[in-house]
């Protein structure tokens, strides 16, 4: 059982220890030495501190034997004796982690009494004190978020980033605390930090009642906070009462025709498939294409971080290198086909066309193109979800369209003799020419569509984890959709030139 004592009882314990010493000990013991130490801490008298240490060298060490006690550092922190506190921190760092009988550390007392110079001194010596939990499991970060000390808040975040994950006894983060206490500027500081360190999943954490920070903002009608959070959190998350933030906000409003409004809202949810699901329902679903890819690469689909092991990284890199080599070889083969190109224009061919016969050229371009496109597909499949993957994706799509355009330029004209001699082969070639743009479009966009679908399915899961965060799913796909349409149009325009400009007639 933990003992709860103050500084006056430390002297009693020290006296008992002194009585158990050997009779040969020559160290004098003064029962009032701890009272004098307390007075020195109140006055900030460093000289008197060292005189007391000279009388009793273990005077500071006895505090380590107590679970809860008021140390000289607590007294100095409460009185604002900064230099004395720094001296004690240097002599006995463990005193900074002690809680007094009220459940407060020296750091908490310095903050409560607004001795910010001392607080910064504590942080400079030991930044982990920002995460020390006092009464109610409240940390110094929670305190500055509650009172709105934005300068200290930002300094704490830089000094101890992990403190943002600390929870109070009510399972509240610093974001919850700032929102509940109406500290808008402190909330913006926290939100700005969270966005810069890619920790948006913290915003979806729930307190003991299942409320996120968005629920808290709705309960006190903080519309500005709700607008800021609405872009980065799950707006459909429900608390333990089964209510979303919008439901809580509507309690403070009186909408016209509430029954009709609720009916239309439910219909909209079903059409847009934006309703949330729980973690259990998500785990019963089959693995998506992206999850099967992650499993193949040895990645965890439910990992809280994006870290990869060395073995996983080696497997990923090896596949990527091989795919890049195949893309390079097939691209070069497409630009320099066997036999070369005609150098002049005649009735049978144009300058710049392949010297191959028509059906041989079809076989060559078909096989070489399939190898090229499948390798591009593998590259896209491996990079999707990585930083700047959309830029690389757009580049590979543009490369495929450029390769197709070069094929249309160098493709030889068919001769009527070959068509009449091999009618079935001619029909197969025509079908291939018509279907190939569809194959290209599917290969280029299947992975992208699968990735977007997987991220949206994950976002619907009402569970506070990084793998279910809104960060990846929130990016609007409009630009990517526009780029995709351009690629599709480019594929068909380029490829139909083969059919119409080459005068291919079946």
Automatic annotation (TrEMBL):
Key words of the record: ANK repeat, Membrane, Transmembrane, Transmembrane helix
Domain PGG: 313-388
Record field: transmembrane: 318-335, 361-384, 391-410, 430-451, 478-500
InterPro entries assigned: Ankyrin_rpt (IPR002110), Ankyrin_rpt-contain_sf (IPR036770), PGG_dom (IPR026961)
ANK-type repeats, residues: 209-229
Cross-referenced SUPFAM superfamilies: Ankyrin repeat
The name this protein goes by in its record: PGG domain-containing protein
Native organism: Thlaspi arvense (Field penny-cress)
Taxonomy of the source species: Eukaryota, Viridiplantae, Streptophyta, Embryophyta, Tracheophyta
